[in-house]
Structures are given as structure tokens and as C-alpha cells.
């Protein structure tokens, strides 16, 4: 079972390829855990290794007020991802960040929700460890944590999982 989580952005996006019980593979560590969207789209269109992915979970944007063009660019980008994966016959699920937060039992309100989600992921999947002794989340940084959180939320709430 392979799950691809994507945290989309307007120019760069984080991703995490997760096989429950195994090491997490993530986007570039050198740029906040994100990769350029054009590179990610190209990989999604052509990568043979992505044909084995059982579930794609993309964090869905929610607009609560007047928004900037960057938010609309992000929405257009994840729409392109949904189209690509749908054409490849993959199951695609969209989850809101509030769904991720509640899935991990994190109440809304003040404080860093991201750090609480990361802590919950480390407890559920495992600590990063060190370079000499890498753990299952070794190398997960920045936006890749959010992509992994989306993947776990989508997978654990997916009725088609084994």
C-alpha cells in the first residue's frame, strides 16, 4: 500500500510518499521540504514509480475571506494534480487542514497547530532519528510534514484501505 500526500503551494509543493510501516520518502530537503510545481507536475505525469500509488491525498484549500492571487494559483495547481492522477486511474482524496487537525485530536485555536501535528506524526510513525541511525521520518522537513499529515489522515479515513 502506497500513499502519496501533497501539500500544494502556488509555486512549490511538499510531498511525502508513505508506505504504512516503512520509511517515508519526501520532497527536496534543501528548500523547506518543497519542490517546484512544474517539476512535481512532470513527475506526476511521467514517473513509472507513481503508477504503483494506491491513494493520493492532497491538502484542500479553504477560503474564508477575500483571497490573494497566490491562493487561487494554488487551487488551480491542485486541480491540475487531480486531473493528472484521475487520468492515471488513481484514487484521489482531498482533505482540509482542519480535517488533519481533528484527525490527530488537535483542538483549534491559538498556538502552533503545525508543531502539534508534527509531534503527533512522530508518535504515530516514528522519530526521524539521526543520519547514522535514520528513523522512519528521517528527512521529513517543512512542507513535507504537512504532506505526510494529509497522507496519514486520508489513508486512515479511507474506506478502500486494506
TrEMBL record:
GO terms for molecular function: nucleic acid binding. InterPro entries: RNaseH-like_sf, RNaseH_sf. It comes from the Bacteria. This is Uncharacterized protein.
Amino acid at each position: 500500500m502506497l500513499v502519496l500526500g501533497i501539500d500544494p503551494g502556488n509555486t512549490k509543493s511538499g510531498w511525502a510518499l508513505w508506505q504504512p510501516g516503512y520509511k517515508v520518502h519526501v520532497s527536496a530537503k534543501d528548500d523547506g521540504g518543497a519542490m517546484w510545481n512544474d517539476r512535481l507536475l512532470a513527475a506526476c505525469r511521467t514517473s513509472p514509480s507513481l503508477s504503483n500509488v494506491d491513494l493520493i491525498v492532497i491538502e484542500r484549500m479553504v477560503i474564508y475571506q477575500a483571497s490573494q492571487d497566490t491562493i487561487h494559483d494554488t487551487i488551480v495547481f491542485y486541480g491540475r494534480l487531480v486531473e493528472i492522477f484521475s487520468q492515471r486511474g488513481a484514487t484521489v482524496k482531498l482533505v482540509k487542514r482542519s480535517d488533519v487537525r481533528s484527525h490527530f485530536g488537535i483542538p483549534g485555536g491559538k498556538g502552533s497547530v503545525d508543531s502539534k501535528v508534527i509531534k503527533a506524526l512522530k508518535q504515530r510513525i516514528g522519530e526521524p532519528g539521526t543520519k547514522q541511525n535514520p528513523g522512519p521520518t528521517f528527512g521529513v522537513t517543512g512542507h513535507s510534514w504537512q504532506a505526510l499529515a494529509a497522507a496519514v489522515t486520508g489513508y486512515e479515513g479511507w474506506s478502500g484501505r486494506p
